[in-house]
Amino acid sequence: MKALSVVITMYNQVQNIERAIKSVQRQALKVNEIIVVDDGSTDGSVELVRNLNVENLNVVELSGCGIATMRNEGAMAAKSNYVAFLGADDEWLPFFTHEMSQLQEKYPTSDVFATRYQCMSDNGTLRDADIYLNSVNPNGYLLTDFFKMATLGDLPFTVSSMMVKRSNFLALGGFAVSEHTRVPKDFILQAALDGTIAYSPNIHMHCHTQCHNPGVEDLFPVGNYSSAERLYSMVMAGNYSAQMLKSVQRYCAVQGLNAAKTFIKNGNSHMAKSVLTMPMCQHYTRYYLAMFTLVKLHAAKSLLSNAVAALRKESQA
Question: What is the largest distance, in Å, between two alpha-carbon atoms of the chain?
Answer without folding.
Answer: 79
